[in-house]
Amino acid sequence: MDKKHVAYKGRLVILGFGSIGQGVLPLILRHVDMPRENIVVVTAEERGREVAAEYGIRFILEPLTRDNYRKVLTGLLGKGDFLLNLSVDVQSVALIQLANELGALYLDTCIEPWPGGYTDPSLTPSQRSNYALRESALALAPKFASGPTAVLTHGANPGLVSHFVKEALLHIARDTGHKAAQPTDRKSWAKLASDLSVKVIHIAERDTQVASYPKKVGEFVNTWSIDGFVGEGSQPAELGWGAHERLMPEDGKRHDFGCDAAIYLMRPGASTRVRSWTPLEGPYHGFLVTHNESISIADYYTVKDGAKVSYRPTVHYAYHPCDDAVLSLHEIAGKNWKLQPEKRLMVDEITTGMDELGVLLMGHKNGAYWYGSRLTIEEARKLVPHNNATSLQVTVAVLAGLVWAIENPNVGPIEADGMDHRRILEICAPYLGEMAGAYSDWTPLQGRHALFPEAVDASDPWQFKNFRVV
């Protein structure tokens, strides 16, 4: 458990020190052979100062803005150093550009805009989307190719789940008797998904963690970044749009730029529910919150015949957060998405529960296959301090992405889908609890007519219109 995965002599700047920054620090110190005096925390808030002090890490309280980010970071980073971006309200593209100029490695867990970028009413919904943020980051790739590695959006999801998808595809191929060589590149992975007839991929997650005292009125409670969750929940609902889809949702829109692998809905993701399934929870209603992986996975597994898309899966997040977070969303929606005056991140007060996080691949010969991590709060606490079950699935993926970048320092900007999933899972596995795979005959049409008839297309249960809950 204390194995050093890589030796590193450079400096490491951890930008942002909320739940993920505090949770990943002990993992970095445990698994990266580097002097702790080479690590510095730069953050906009006082929280976490005591955790940094516990490990003897320098702590700088300095909110980054458009005006000062270059001055602050230029004094802390140089060639061969590492910028680990775990912040909010600091534009990721600006940081990636600066890291490249300085010759520093880079990793983030989402593509972040400057303040207001998620909700600015002067921007169109398309401009406020994760699709647009992703395109802005990928636009750097041609210029920065073969430069310092910049790992884009590598937490649990986005990030770890892309590696789960690859492992799940290999399991389905094995279990259905599909004989094919081990995929080695994007084209061969996409061909495997197409040959297996995977039509839909859900990032299917159910968080059952419970605190010793309940949410209060006027309080937003969550098991991970509240600002991050509210920000992405306020963006348009987004999903990768499969080649098999025949009818666009009534409020569905396409973007007029970029890869065209996704659509968005004219509503917040945190107000949009979809049907999904995990092995322990069974059927449930999850929120269609926008995430980078919904777009990147759909894009990565696209097969084209010339200019025409011949195969692409529909991909989206189906998230059931902890019950107190559901109540928090219900309250904030009633206030027209104005955040409550109080925020509480659940960590020490959690008494029981787990995060069941995986990918649900549907439409293939065996119906539906879920593969992922079942991590309880008890296991998380035994494994790493300053984590709950949700944060540990993120922080260990951050560690794995950091190690991979150090081992592969000159690939420029890269998403999780293009990385070696076996190396990432090797690093993450000891911290993910029970890794499980389960087949099911579940479809989104099961039981839907129990109380009222519905106009659904029973001939194809994998159409997105059959998933929607209006």
Walk me through this protein's architecture:
With 470 residues, the chain is α/β, with parallel strands linked by helices. It has two domains: 147 residues, NAD(P)-binding Rossmann-like Domain (Rossmann fold), CATH 3.40.50; 280 residues, Dihydrodipicolinate Reductase, domain 2 (2-Layer Sandwich), CATH 3.30.360. The protein is built from 14 helices and 26 strands. The strands form eight sheets. A seven-stranded parallel beta sheet has the order 5-4-2-6-7-8-24, with helices on both faces. Helix 1 packs across helix 13, helix 7 crosses helix 14 and helix 13 packs across helix 14. The longest helix has 19 residues. The chain starts with 5 loop residues before the first strand and ends with a strand.
Write the layout of secondary structure elements.
Elements: E1 6-7, E2 12-15, H1 19-31, E3 32-33, E4 39-43, H2 49-54, E5 58-61, H3 69-74, E6 82-85, H4 92-102, E7 105-108, H5 130-138, H6 141-144, E8 150-152, H7 160-175, H8 186-195, E9 200-207, E10 210-211, E11 219-222, H9 226-234, E12 236-240, E13 252-254, E14 262-268, E15 273-278, E16 282-287, H10 292-300, E17 303-305, E18 308-311, E19 314-320, H11 323-334, E20 342-345, E21 350-352, E22 354-364, E23 367-376, H12 377-383, H13 389-407, E24 413-415, H14 421-428, E25 434-440, E26 468-469
Parallel strand pairs: 1-3, 2-4, 2-6, 4-5, 6-7, 7-8, 8-24, 9-19, 11-20
Antiparallel strand pairs: 9-22, 10-21, 12-14, 13-14, 15-16, 15-26, 17-18, 22-23, 23-25
Helix pairs in contact: 1-13, 7-14, 13-14
